Amino acid sequence: MTPTLTLVQGDITGQSADAIVNAANSSLLGGGGVDGAIHRRGGPEILAECRALRASRYGKGLRTGQAVATTAGRLDARWVIHTVGPVHSAGEDRSALLASCYRESLRVADELGARTVAFPAVSTGVYGWPMDDAARIAVEAVRAAGTAVEEVRFVLFDDRAYAAFAEHVR
């Protein structure tokens, strides 16, 4: 079954969903952009679980393209699914790693029983992925994922991101 794809312009930390995806860095310990916003609004519970993950299974951090879940803390969600997107490279095709972020996040969502998942535009901030290409990869990966998730909501921060995703969701 293919989930319903919805586009929303706004702040992902204000979304109500079973799971909110965090464009995390490999340390899982917070950062800038979406990652920092989720940690700030979600509260210390998220960071505490991320520290526990680092102390156990992810001592060297979460690998690019992988995903892992924690509590959502004070967010209006049950879980935060952290995924590490690739840094864009003009000289190396890393699109499979970006697609993996979406597939792996949906795999984790399925394991949790999540029915609604809110995604940011992974890797399009400081990691420099061109928005149109990132939108194409995200939409193709979600459509091909074979997930039980009923709704995937792409939460886009600005007009440019919304327009890029709208081109591919049609």
What does this structure look like?
- Helices cover 38% and strands 19% of the residues.
- By secondary structure, it is α/β, with parallel strands linked by helices.
- The chain has a single domain, classed as Leucine Aminopeptidase, subunit E, domain 1.
- A 6-stranded mixed sheet has the order 1-6-5-2-4-3, sandwiched between helices.
- It is globular, with a radius of gyration of 14 Å.
- InterPro entries: Macro_dom, Macro_dom-like.
CATH architecture descriptor name: 3-Layer(aba) Sandwich
End-to-end C-alpha gap = 18 Å
Shape field: globular
Q: Please outline the major beta sheet.
A: 6 strands, mixed
β-strand percent reads 15-25%
Count of individual helical segments: 5
Report the mean per-residue pLDDT as an integer. Answer: 96
Low-confidence spans: none
Give the % helix: 25-40%
CATH homologous superfamily placement: Leucine Aminopeptidase, subunit E, domain 1
Count of distinct structural domains: 1
CATH topology: Leucine Aminopeptidase, subunit E, domain 1
Oligomer: single chain
Topology record:
Layout: E1 4-9, E2 19-24, H1 33-42, H2 44-55, E3 67-71, E4 79-84, H3 95-112, E5 116-119, H4 131-144, E6 151-156, H5 159-169
Helix pairs in contact: 3-4, 4-5
Provide a concise account of the structure shown.
InterPro entries: Macro_dom, Macro_dom-like. By secondary structure, this protein is of the alpha/beta class.
